[in-house]
Design a protein that fits this description.
By secondary structure, this protein is of the alpha/beta class. It is about 35% helix and about 20% strand. The protein is built from 9 helices and 10 strands. The protein has a 6-stranded parallel beta sheet with strand order 7-4-3-8-9-10, with helices on both faces. Bound molecules: dicarbonimidic diamide.
Length: about 240
């Protein structure tokens, strides 16, 4: 199938494509979690949920591998570097008690993926200790064992965990197609810059597309209309 994208449309074999949904956790999207503890307006991330859900539903229907990631730490913080924990006011740091349980700790309510995007049985969930989904995880193994060479990437935040993961994936030889409307940032300018950096220089880290373009491709419709949609949504 052909996915309309920037800088160029991309031909992919659906059998080798996975949907990778990055960190759509309550800790980042809902009040009282890690994102808000860092002083962010978490409501800015909500817009990414419906496009992610639409692509998730379509990917499941098409039989694509769907992989979810979560950022978080062990309850004893033994996998959390001091350099990460010591930032911010102590009452709001990683491991502190918040309204959704201890902030950014595995097993706490805030660590869960938001209900609209909850993993289905059998879908791999990659728990990662930091920004990149390949760092100290078995994601590469999971993808290689399924013969995956192309990742449709959405999630939060665009310039942090999405960009870090895309750069890691690019270095490992994966083709990354980032869905602009399926990603979000607390900072609109960083969202735009994060996408611009991926697709610049002939797609130095990958491609940028939209949920609509991917839905079109998965439905087997011609990519021409999708090209126009992508141009409208990404510009
Ligand atoms: C952050 C993430 N922003 N998932 N994590 O700390 O982007």
């Amino acid at each position: 199938m052909v996915i309309s994208a920037e800088p160029d449309a991309l031909e992919v074999d659906p059998a080798q494509v996975a949907l990778l949904i990055i960190d759509m956790q309550r800790d980042f999207l809902e009040p009282g979690g890690f994102g808000e503890s860092l002083g962010n307006d978490v409501s800015r991330l909500a817009a990414a949920v419906p496009p992610c859900r639409a692509v998730l539903d379509a990917a499941r229907r098409a039989g694509l591998l769907v992989v979810h990631t979560r950022e978080g730490h062990r309850p004893d913080l033994s996998d959390a570097p001091r350099a990460k924990v010591e930032r911010g006011a102590p009452a709001l740091r990683i491991g502190a008690q918040g309204p959704m349980g201890r902030i950014l700790i595995r097993g706490e309510p805030g660590h869960d993926i938001v209900p609209a995007l909850a993993p289905a049985p059998g879908e791999p969930v990659i728990d990662k200790p930091d920004k990149g989904a390949f760092y100290q995880t078995d994601l590469d193994l999971v993808l290689k064992n399924r013969g995956i060479d192309t990742l449709l990437v959405c999630g939060v935040t665009t310039e942090v965990c999405v960009n870090t993961t895309v750069r890691e994936a690019n270095d490992r030889g994966y083709r990354c197609v980032v869905l602009a409307d399926g990603c979000a940032s607390y900072f609109p300018a960083f969202h735009e810059a994060g996408l611009a950096m991926i697709k610049a220089q002939g797609g130095i880290f990958g491609w940028v597309s939209t949920s609509e373009a991917v839905l079109t491709a998965l439905a087997g419709r011609p990519p021409r209309a999708a090209a126009l949609q992508a141009a409208e949504m990404v510009s």
